[in-house]
Structure formats: C-alpha cells, structure tokens
Amino acid sequence: MAGFLRGFYSLSALYIDSDHDVAVIASRKALELALLNKVHEACSILEIIAHERSETYHDRPFIRLVSEGVYFMYEGAGLSPPAGLVAEIVFDEENLESLEQELLQRIPYLPEDLTFGKGSTEEDFGKLKTWVQNVESERGSNGGLDATTGHDAMLLSSGLVGLLCIALHLNKFSEADGIMTRIVSRLDANKQSEYLTYIRPAWKQYFLSGWLRDKIGVSDDELKQYAEFVRDTTKQRLQDGRLRASDVFKGRPLVEMLEELDRNTLRFPKLYEEYGYVTDDDDEQTEGQAGGQNAIFTAPKTILRTPATTARIKEVELRLGCSLPEDLKEFYALTNGTRLVVSGPYLGLERPFPKVELLLWEESPDWMSSYQLELLPGARLSASIEWPNIDCGGIAMYENDGQGTKYLWYFQGELLEKAKSTLEKAYSEAAEPGKRVLDNLVKEYHGSWAQLRNLQSCWYQQGWGGPGLNVFHNFRDYLSLVVLESYF
C-alpha cells in the first residue's frame, strides 16, 4: 500500500525494483521519518544512499532524487548533508529563503495572484482559505479528496500546504495548528507529505519538535524498527545488488511453484468479485462477460487448469513451425495455462499464462521493429546503448490488454547475438567507472558475463508503447517472478 511510512517492500527492493527506484523510495521514507523527529535514523538512511550511489555512479551523484526539503531538516537539526546527496549550498538565510520560494513555486494548482512565504499578507491567507474551502465543498462528494492518487487529492494537498505556509509566516499559530490537524488526517493523500517538507518554518514548529509524531500517536519503538528495516534493506540492496527471483525457487519443481502461486492467489477471493469473474464447470472462464442481473461473480477453486495433452502440445508446435522450450512444455503438461493470478505490491489480477492453443508465432516488421531487445531493461546507464531493433519473429505468449499489454516473446539466434555484441562493444568502449557499472548490472540481470555469453535463447517482456520490462533466460525464470510477485 502506498502512503505515509508505507510503500517500502523488502520483496520489491531486493528482487524487483531498480537501484534508482529503491534509492528514491528509501529517501522518501527517510524524510517521512524526519517529519516525525527521527532525524538520526533519517540521516543514516540518506548517508547509505549517498555513499552507495557515489561508489557506483562516480559521475552521477544522488542529486535531485530526494526532495530538497531535506535541506530544512539539516538546517533545523544543525547538521550538514553528506557529499553527493544533494547539490551543496551555503546554509545562510538568503540561500535557504530562496530555496523555500523555489520549492513553493513547484507546488501545482495554487492561485498565481497570491504571495507565499516571505511577504504573505492577511489578504493572501483569506483568499487561499476560501479557495481551499471551495475545493472541499465542490469536490468532496467525489470521494477522492484524501485518496493516495488522483488530481483532486493533489489539489487539496497543494492548498493545505500553501495555507500552512502563509499562516506560519504571519505567525498565525492557532490557525496553523488547525491546518496541521487537517493535514494529519490525510497524510497518505497524494503528495501531501512530500509538499509538507517544502515548508521551512514547519520543520521546527511541527516536525523536529515532535508535534507531528505525538499527534499521530506512533510509538518511538515502532519508528525505530521501521527505520532499521528501511536502512538495512536499502543497504543490502545497494551493496549486494538486486537478487534474482530465479534464485528464490532454485531447485524447486515446477509443480511446487504452481501450488504456491495457487495458494497465494486464492487468499484474495474478493479480487475476483471486483474483476467480474465467472467460472464454468467445463474448465473455461468468461471474465467480464457474464451479463444480466443474476450473474454471480466468484473466485475459482483453483487457478490451475486441466493439463494439456502431449498430442495437443505437438499440434501447437506443428502450427508454430518450431519446438517449444522444454520447461514450457513441462508447464503445459501440468496446467494448460492458468486463470487470473494475483500480483503485487498493489494487489491486482493478471493473465501471465495463456493456454497453449493461444501461443502464436509473431513477426511484424511494422510494429515489432519499433521495440529493441534490451539485455539490461530498465537499467540506468552512464552512457546510452543502442540496442538492436526486434527485426525477427518469435513465439508470443501473452493476452492483449490494450495499453496494459505486457508482450512476452521467445527469441533465439541472430537477434540475441546482435544484442550481446552490442553490450560487449559498449563495455569495451567504457571507462573504468562505466565498466564497473556494467559488471554490476550483468551480474544483477544475468548472473555473470559467462552465463550471458553462453545464452542461446531468452524470453523478453516488453511494455505496450514503452521500454523493455524484463529479460528471462528461460521460462522457469519468468514463472519465478510471477510466483514471487504473488507473495505481497
């Protein structure tokens, strides 16, 4: 679940998210801890991030990945930020006042004819108070004002923070307390806690004084435990690299992995009701097509299907004109695809495994060639790599879901060799810091250079209209990730 002091998951951090994403999320949690007067704990997390980023990306320190409201934390606590965390500035009144004005200007939707911070007037306060009241009265019926996402919630977050800023600069402390009480009731709301870090006088008045922590009622021990969890997980991830989902299930039979996926999914029967899922006795599914007032939306008894016969698998191979990988044939011999399965961290249902009859050979130079086969999908590189376009066909295993489609193709031969040669060339031309980055990424994505160089085929997952998502050495690796994501 997203929200204040939430949204940092060990599974995502250790196995799924990029180092960049882990660092960004961890830095947000550090600032949220600082808002609750856990400055020492926040600093320890930020120091780890700054150190590990500078060790890995010597030419690109961790600047602008953490809210610059962090300067006000360091100012209030009488500390200095670690080198490489944010752009260095002189901690004098002029610079800090200028920074607050810059941050306030980044808050969207606030009326442009008002002055925020130094120079605010009673008239500004009155106008913005009316503006906030109008937002609450006009949009309150939508039910989204305090949501973790959405425009309405962001609109109110902006208004309340702007109002707090003016109140504090006018020394209207009683009004400011009331505004903060309203903010406390919606700290999970979209952008609320982030914008709160931009208000310089609020750090001493409400955050470093312990006012906000006492108002929330969270215990000191709980905060320390959460801080240790974020710090230790971040340190492990940034120092040791991303763990591979395939390592979690190494040596486990496919049947056990499918049983695990079945158990994990059926923990959430209401997800099927929300999806509009209808099951039939003949092992078929008709999702969202029940129709009529008497339709019964219910969870299946199992996500597994009747296994595909050897003859049926052979028919598909003849139609495709090629053999299926052995681990994929083993999968279909256990279950002919699956019904919808659960996927986290934000729980939903997905269709990762269509029936064997739905496999097809896909080869379309008109649109597939607009995508590239990236062997390090999602990685942040110090120098860009021109990966080869997908100019050949492959086995396609996915169900179309419009713009949410996650294409999954099985490639081998010339295209894969081109991608490997492209990466080797980029490595040979890189300076030593760049080589270290690529060494770490190859270990993270492929286990080792030797494993990558020996790779003869792969499954490649591509987002609709976007960048590459994942590269898998075999079908088992793909199944491992799907099962891992069902643990949330």
UniProtKB/TrEMBL annotation:
It holds the Pfam family SMI1_KNR4. InterPro entries: Knr4/Smi1-like_dom (IPR018958), Knr4/Smi1-like_sf (IPR037883). Residues 307-481 form the Knr4/Smi1-like domain. This is Knr4/Smi1-like domain-containing protein. It comes from Talaromyces atroroseus.
